[in-house]
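Minutes, project check-in

Agenda point 3 was the complex the collaborators sent over. CS summarized: two entities, 445 residues total, and the question is how they sit relative to each other. Sequences were read into the notes so everyone works from the same version.
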Amino acid sequence: MDAIIQQFFNIDIMVQAWPLLLRGLGMTLLICLVVIPMGLVGGLFAALGSVSHLRGIRWAAIAFVDFFRALPPLVLLIFLYAGLPFAGLRISPFVAVVIGFFLNNSAYYAEIIRAGLLSVHKGQTEAARSTGLSAGQTLIHVTLPQALRNVLPDLLSNTVEVVKLTSLASVVSLGEMLHQAGLARSVTYNASPIVLAGLIYLVLLWPLVRVISRFERRIAS
Amino acid sequence: MSSFSDTFLNMDVLARYAPSILKGVGVTILLSVLIVLTGVVVGTLLACLRSFRVRLLSFFIVVFADIFRALPPLVLILLAFFGLPNIGVVLTSFTVLYLVLALVLAAFAEEIVWAGITATPKGQWEAARSTGLGYTQTLGYVVLPQALRMVIPPLTNRAIAITKMTALGMVIGVPDILGQATTAQSFSANASPLTLAAVAYVVIFLPLVVLSRWLETRFSRGAA
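CS then shared the predicted structure for the full assembly.
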């Protein structure tokens, strides 16, 4: 028991690692602020493409979504970060993370928004169009608000996944929270900094996880 | 263009490292099967235990499920791989990856199956109990089969998402597809092994992604 406290919940080491982790947390939040809006916008366009009447656009959008849902994000990230330099394209870890997450998140958000768009009854579009709204106006004022509301729990749950996914950036040595915790661990030979990082993730995400559970149950009942 | 193909599709490099990446495919598939079986079974059992509504037990199940859903799997992997040896528990990287991802899937599966159990109409419980079935029998023969049917699409989605995370094993040196590919890439100073790895993942997971969409349209339309 004593060994567990020493190795996992060592307060002294946690206090020492705290400033390092806090800086990492800043980077984690910065990544989130950049990649979540980009993913939502990319996802929206891919979703619109995947329900398009034009076969070419529809197939291209679905191929994009399926490809990036099938490819593990870490594989994509390492391909961008370690593969592209061989072709003379050297990109910083941050850019690699942003591009990789943009492609991955867009695909996931697209699949959710697509389900939302398909859940809105056809009559809504027909009614809106017959009142004289253009196709664009119908989408923005009628279809999209209903679509997004229908899939709000899934959007929220995917956003939690995105925040968790930012920990992958540690693999390409971007100094986000887990990377900093890993550094502190390798210096102290003690797992407490990683426990501390875990606790910070819990503080950030546990409330959201609870809200999602509640959402899901309300929809089920 | 030729330098592009030399870098990303170099036939010599591909031929040299294809066997090791193929071995990685075996490891990835073995891990995936083990994780899905363990995760779904443990998650379903936990959801069933929770339905007995023993307060303390339910509390611990919810705490477990919440923690394993809120923490990034990579945090858990590093914690288990680097932390446990310090207290005398030495596990191979394969075992660590298997245990962590199986528990993460179990946590998600518990929540999903539980949502299915609570969504099963009360009349089903009452009808089954009034025919003389016990509580456990009602759960096992009447409620659970309906609940599981309802949750097949979200459960499949989640299982696929978590098996894709086997790629995280590369960080602790599991010789899976990505692990083999990054080793090959650093030996050969060429990106082709990574291309091959990406192709291997897409070949394995694309059919599953398409299947999950088909399940979703097939099951949820009927349910909704």
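Noted in discussion: The mean pLDDT of chain A is 93.
Follow-up: revisit at the next meeting once the mutant set is ready.
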